[in-house]
Amino acid sequence: MPKQPQHKPVIRTIAMPADTNPAGDIFGGWLMGQMDLAAGNTAARVARGRAATIAVDGMSFLKPVKVGDEVSIYATLQSTGRTSMKIFVEAWRRDRYEFETEQVTHATFTFVAIDEHRRPRPLDLAS
């Protein structure tokens, strides 16, 4: 059983009825969007500017998210290249009336730092 990260989540939100599929579960696309926002926030901080998502690897939906669940998204920088960075993202749910949490998905997002013309630019990791 995976352990919840000890650092603060990048995003914490509540799953709402508007985010559901016809079966009443939260759309995987909504959850992936939340994960991309968290990864993008981390990427922008590392890049010290704009960054664009170029790939998502290993997306695994482990458990459903239900309406009313608190969803916490954690992002961890895994590696950097000349212009790119890999960020591991985990999503955890907590029933609004309970204390225990469970991991619902994870994936590795790859971002590229971009300039004002939307072209790749080198990361400035020395500062």
The CATH superfamily label reads Hotdog Thioesterase
First-last Cα distance: 38 Å
Number of strands: 5
Number of domains in the coordinates?
Answer: 1
Would you kindly provide a written description of the structure presented here, covering whatever features stand out?
The protein is an alpha+beta fold and about 130 residues long. The protein has one domain: Roll (Thiol Ester Dehydrase, Chain A). The protein is built from one helix and five strands. It has one helix at about 30-45, and strands at about 10-15, 50-60, 70-80, 85-95, 100-115. The chain has a five-stranded antiparallel sheet, covered by helices on one side. A hairpin with a 7-residue loop joins strand 4 (about 85-95) and strand 5. The radius of gyration is 16 Å and the shape is elongated.
Question: Main attributes?
Answer:
alpha+beta; 39% strand; 1 helix; single chain; 127 residues; 5 strands; Thiol Ester Dehydrase, Chain A
Briefly summarize what is shown:
With 127 residues, the protein is α+β, with helices and mostly antiparallel strands.
Strands, helices and their partners?
Layout: E1 11-14, H1 28-47, E2 51-61, E3 70-80, E4 84-94, E5 102-113
Antiparallel strand pairs: 1-3, 2-5, 3-4, 4-5
